[in-house]
Automatic annotation (TrEMBL):
Biological-process GO terms, alphabetical: gluconeogenesis
Protein keywords: ATP-binding, Lyase, Nucleotide-binding
Catalysis: reaction(s): oxaloacetate + ATP = phosphoenolpyruvate + ADP + CO2
Protein name according to UniProt: phosphoenolpyruvate carboxykinase (ATP)
Organism listed in the record: Lacrimispora saccharolytica (strain ATCC 35040 / DSM 2544 / NRCC 2533 / WM1) (Clostridium saccharolyticum)
């Protein structure tokens, strides 16, 4: 599937698809006489390499010529400053109650005007890597931000001959009514007062991520961190996919090709730092022939249950990859890390979050040896990754409503990938529906899609806790051992205590005792938290995210059985 870039004269005008206020503000500057088109990764690399402040390390890009770089390309390092994480507080989503699009449009109009004094770069990429689903995305960003531009083109699919042909041959998305995505970015914007501009529509007058997903456009202002541009793009693509029959997934997916000829497709959903990348890329000691789709972003066709990756590369934390480790062979760029000279006087990265939290790198597709852009086999299981200390290392959910609502009330802890608002507790347990803080449409849309997968497509659903269980840390070897037992069909699930719709696989060292009054009380409290969350969806944001009644009933049943 493809999006639309060119319009016959009779299709241009007010009220026609692709033409509305916010989009018209954002698209026009792409054609300005101060704009330079960046067509290839080689061009973007040279711009980033020569951008002031870039560190050109002595680490070679492994097999870079296979994906659009010169053979002698090096890993580039660029550091953003004090901000090294995403800032959810800055997000404004058109269509949500209380969001003043008129005021936001004025902010963007003035930001666009200010860039007339700057040289701007225009780049294009594909998001979605199979003819079934491919979206063309445009980015406009000022001179001086060449590293963001280069990272963005690396993170998504640059327009190689292979993918350009694939895109041209694909069918239009939404019967040709879905326009290309346009993103205007000015990290240098500082929110100065201007005539006709009211900054009170922003939570922070110095930055803004404004999404109008119905119009396939966004503006990112005053934000240097590359992750804002990566997740901002995914935000737009996931919204477009949601409109067109897909479940949008912030997680990882892998396919186990078993010795009996069968396949087992597992999808894991979790926030950054939850373990989704570890689970997705785990090689299981060579025990299985594994195919990886992606570890962060994909979509599931809710009719065929096949899955498509959105990105070719990996935006990964560097915390667990010390200098010189084998995995670093696949680095393309690094952000918010340090560097030093080795014994030969060569510039090497200093990782492990020594400089700051949330050091990052983009790794090439080659990092995962059995990587594919699409998994045709239908998904077999969904795993909600939680860091709720009352949940055992694994439970299985029966019933489509319970399976989906537990995803909607996914409880976890924040990670260093996020810049929190002042006063926010980084250790508090929070609910992030479907582990996707980038949703821009009503929560019920995701609820119904995941419910359909369980109810109509017979997809199994589990919760896995990768945090602490009642004070004892669940180790990666525990989680992977549980996953292997499920894949091998040796996991023995049985009804968990009084819960008619929850089964447990008792993992040694982590067997819950429901006769322990203190534990039962904590479990009850966490389930009641979920009940309150779902009940509040009818009230918060004027009911914008209200979930269906069966979602609340499924949780109330658990609380009643626990009593």
């Amino acid at each position: 599937m493809s999006t639309k870039a060119y319009y016959p004269i009779n299709e241009i005008g007010k009220g026609k698809p692709g033409f509305a206020t916010t989009r018209s503000i954002i698209e026009a500057p792409f054609y300005g006489n101060n704009v330079i088109k960046v067509n290839t990764l080689r061009e973007a690399y040279e711009l980033a390499k020569n951008s002031p402040g870039t560190v050109v390390t002595d680490m070679p890009v492994y097999r870079g010529e296979e994906f659009g770089l010169d053979k002698d390309a090096k890993v580039l390092l660029f550091n953003d400053g004090a901000i090294t994480g995403r800032y959810a507080t800055a997000r404004r989503i058109a269509g949500e109650p209380g969001v003043n699009c008129g005021a936001l449009d004025k902010v963007v109009m003035d930001a666009v005007y200010e860039t007339r004094w700057k040289t701007m770069y225009h780049a294009e990429v594909f998001a979605g890597l199979d003819p079934e689903f491919m979206v063309k995305v445009h980015l406009l960003i000022p001179e001086g931000e060449e590293n963001i531009l280069y990272n963005w083109m690396l993170n998504f699919q640059y327009m190689s001959d292979e993918y350009a042909k694939m895109y041209k041959a694909s069918k239009p998305i939404g019967d040709g009514k879905e326009a290309d995505i346009y993103i205007f970015s000015d990290p240098q914007w500082n929110g100065s007062d201007r005539p006709g501009v009211d900054l009170s529509c922003l939570s922070d007058p110095k930055c803004l991520c404004y999404f109008n997903t119905d119009q396939n456009c966004a503006a990112i202002l005053g934000m240097r961190y590359f992750g804002e541009h990566k997740k901002g793009t995914l935000t737009m693509v996931w919204a477009l996919a949601n409109r067109n029959g897909y479940a949008s997934c912030h997680g990882g997916q892998k396919e186990y090709n078993l010795t009996d000829g069968s396949k087992y497709v597992a999808s894991v959903f979790g926030l950054s730092g939850s373990g989704k990348s570890t689970i997705t890329h785990a090689k299981h000691g060579g025990k299985y022939d594994v195919t990886v789709l992606h570890d962060d972003a994909f979509i599931i066709n809710t009719d065929t249950c096949s899955s498509v990756a959105i990105e070719p590369t990996y935006f990964d934390k560097t915390q667990d990859y010390p200098t010189g480790c084998e995995d670093n062979k696949y680095l393309l760029t690094a952000q918010n890390c340090s560097c030093t000279l080795d014994e030969d006087g060569k510039i090497q990265l200093v990782t492990e979050d020594i400089r700051n939290g949330n050091g990052r790198a983009i790794k090439s597709k080659l990092w995962s040896p059995n990587r594919v852009d699409k998994i045709d086999a239908p998904v077999n299981a969904i795993f909600w990754i939680m860091k709720d200390p009352t949940i055992p290392p694994v439970v299985k959910l029966k019933g489509a409503s319970l399976a989906s609502v537990m995803g909607a009330t996914l409880a976890t802890k924040r990670s260093s990938a996020e810049r929190l608002a002042p006063g926010a507790d980084p250790n508090a347990l929070v609910v992030v529906p479907y582990a996707n803080p980038f949703r821009t449409y009503p929560l019920a849309n995701d609820y119904e899609k995941f419910k359909k997968l369980v109810e109509e497509k017979n997809v199994d659903c589990y919760i896995i806790n990768t945090g602490d269980f009642m004070g004892k840390k669940v180790q990666p070897k525990d989680t992977l051992g549980i996953l292997e037992a499920i894949v091998d069909k040796t996991a023995q699930f049985k009804q968990w205590g009084p819960f008619s719709d929850i089964e447990i696989f008792e993992w040694e060292g982590f067997v819950p005792n429901l006769d322990d009054a203190a534990y039962a009380e904590q479990l009850k409290a966490r389930m009641e938290d979920r009940v309150k969350f779902v009940a509040n969806t009818a009230v918060v944001k004027e009911g914008y995210d209200k979930l269906p009644d069966d979602a609340l009933a499924a949780l109330e049943k658990i609380v009643a059985e626990l009593k």
